[in-house]
Amino acid sequence: MSKVQTPNVLVVGAGSMGMVVGYFLTRAHAQVTYLVRPNRAEELDRTQQLYCYDDNSLKHYHSYKVLTDPSEISKESYEYVIVALDAASLQNEEGRALVRSMGAAFRDTSTKFVLGTVAIGIRDWFLETSGLDATRVTLGLMPIHAYPTDRAILEVHAPTNPALIVQADVAYTDRMGAGFVVLDTAPEVAKPFAELYNQCGVSTASVVPEQDTMTNVDSLLAVMVASELVDWPRLAELPAHKELWGVTTAAVKEIRSLGVHGEPGLRAAESTTEESLARSMKVWEKSMLPFDLQGFNQFHHGAKVKKQDRLHLRTCVSIGEAEGKPMLGLKDLLGRVERHDQE
Q1: Alpha-carbon gap, residue 11 to 317, rounded angstroms
Q2: At which of 179, 208, 237 does a domain end?
Q3: Average pLDDT per consecutive 10 residues, the chain (343 residues; last block may be shorter)
Q4: What phi, psi does 22 have (nearest 5°)?
Q5: Would residue 2 count as lying in a domain?
Q6: Chain centroid to CA 241: how far?
Q7: Domain assignment of residue 241, given as a range
């Protein structure tokens, strides 16, 4: 019988994304270590309960290690480091110091990085700050929707069991086809990481073209801003706000047509209408049931990563203007939400 390999994986950050990814990698026979703040380490000093909407059950997760001091990461060799921090946290003073520490610790190793942070230009920033070689760093996204149950309460739809959610630390659903998406920016990282993840047997990872993926991810943030402006109605109800939906559709088209999104973005922008965007949002929302998608979006995009999202959209405006595009729809949306914040 062949010996099962046990690759070491370091996950930087133990929020919902970090916990769910770590759980699946543990099922794939990886040894997962978390690098977290000291107060978070105390919370992880017990079995974590993960509620899965897809089979209405609790998963028990305990086979992991925890570090709190970045200087300790150099004492172990790791096949992969997954950075599970949002852009605002990663790029603040503490985050920059952490990235420099990781660069110093792993520069002369073969450790590969999966950067799970959504922001235009974040990979280039990470490479410059860490000093790591570009062939060793790729971008990753988690289509799995996960949230901490002590910070968000979502509407319950049958057959969800609210009694089990109360017992959980994190709740998640894996209904988007791939549980983890690795962009093809650095194929030497993306392909083997996806192969490792896929050994978990209960979720799948796929390697996808960067421009195809980011075209949709970046433009979706305009829909999140529109949702916030009218207090997070169902996505299927959002187009009823006709004037706002027209501005939102214009913003989506502007973002998709940015040069960073290449030919896939231009094709997507050309095919985007108010009707087609409304249909895609309705299908997405329905496909996520019994998971309450807009309840999740309100927590995630309306609170947790709001600062990151706003920065991301302002960057889109700057890029567009540099390309000679007025970006009127997106600037209109951002102006509205900034006024909304002040009310």
Answers
A1: 32
A2: 208
A3: 69 96 97 95 95 97 95 94 92 96 96 91 95 96 95 96 97 95 95 97 94 89 97 97 98 96 95 98 97 97 90 94 98 95 84
A4: -60, -40
A5: no
A6: 28
A7: 211-342
| Cβ within 8 Å of residue 311, ≥6 positions away | 87, 88, 119
CB-facing half-sphere around the CA of 108: CA atoms within 13 A: 3
With beta carbons less than 8 A apart as the criterion, state whether 40 and 14 touch: yes
Q: Find how far residue 145's CA is from the centre of its chain.
A: 9
Tell whether 106 and 236 lie within a shared domain: no
Position 295 in a domain = yes
| Conformational region of residue 56, where left means phi above 0, alpha means psi within -120 to 50, and beta covers everything else | left
The residues, ordered by sequence, that sit 6+ positions from 89 with a Cβ below 8 Å of its Cβ are 13, 95
In a domain, 1, yes or no: no
Same domain, 187 and 74: yes
Q: Same structural domain for residues 58 and 111?
A: yes
256 plus 155 within the same structural domain: no
Number of domains in the chain: 2
**Which residue has 């599970």 as its token pair?**
84
CA 87 to chain centre: 10
CB atoms < 10 A from the CB of 271, how many?
11
Residue with tokens 């895609």: 280
Question: Which residues make beta-bridge pairs with 67?
Answer: 35
DSSP 65: E
Classify burial at 26, counting beta carbons within 10 Å of its beta carbon; exposed 0-12, middle 13-18, buried 19 or more: middle
How many Å apart are CA 195 and CA 23, to the nearest integer? 16
Question: String of b and e for 39-59 (b: at least 16 CB within 10 Å)?
Answer: ebeeebeeebbbbbbeeeebb
- Read off the pTM: 0.93
